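1st attempt posting a full record on here, be nice pls
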Amino acid sequence: MEEKNRRSGKFNVVDIVILAIVLAGLVFVGMKFLGSRNGLGSATTRIEYTVLVEEVLPDVCETVMEYRKANVQLMANGALLDGHVVDISYQPHINYEPNDAGIVTPSKEEGEGARMDMIFTIQATVENPVTCKVGTQEVRIGKSHIVKTAEFELEGYPTTTLTKEVIEE
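the predicted structure (as tokens):
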């Protein structure tokens, strides 16, 4: 009887189950690679963090400060990213050196040529809140991080805990 059904072009129960499994696998693979950025979900995460860049030369600091309120877009590998420098501030660089008695004391750099420490506040959207990759860089406190835009590029270290906000798309 089954042989007769196969010849007449009808499906039996086993054929239907196999077809359903194959279709479910194709849907899963399609969603994973072609669908949303996260695979099965469509949520992304917005993060905010600060990066400390130490010992910036005064003329570089002055030039970068021109972009303080410009909401400058980040970039990596020649492409713009979904992230922006939303604030820039600076403070005199502090040196920690021993005095004549061998006691380490802090001293601010002063005068012409005094280096500055710059603080960049960055907001970005990431696909994976576990790795928190902005472009090709993972954002982790203490890990070297390059603040790169079309206008400037400085290397520092994230110094604040990430603020995470899930965004539904």
